[in-house]
Request: fold
Amino acid sequence: MKGKAGAREAAAGSELREPRTVLVIHGPNLNLLGEREPEVYGRTRLEDIDRSLKQLGRELRLKVETFQSNSEGAIVDRIQQARGHVRVLVINPAAYTHTSVAIRDAITACELPTVEVHLSNVYARESFRHHSTIAGIVVGRIMGFGAESYLLALRAAKRLIEAETAAAEA
Reply:
């Protein structure tokens, strides 16, 4: 979509979605944050990340929904449920980053602006972690800042919503 016609079409689609809702999806094993490999992932627990996201969301006037699953199918289901209800998806696919065509296809099908997030810098780790199946379809990627990566991603989501709103009003 380009130009004002494209902006109007985007605006029409965004009217169906809740005004400023961001869905944050955490992939497999992130429920073990704070316990699992703290030298790589830090000591912050997932509950603390979710709490910080919701607090920052209130400050940014965003509604933040969070979801964690170890199951690829459950993640795909949640992405599909978000269609028409959220404005931006923030996702840490975790181990599915490197393998899940199903998650990639769900994001593509739902046409959600998406920010990929990782706690660690995947390029400073094993070579198999360097490939992301969703890198080519996301708006941007944030990694390497520990739990702060999620907060940076939420700030990016707010900017995406603001840009979409401004384009629709132009």
Remarks:
- The longest strand covers residues 21-26.
- Residues 1-16 have pLDDT under 50 and may be disordered.
- Residues 21-46+64-85+96-106 form a domain with the Rossmann fold fold (CATH 3.40.50.9100).
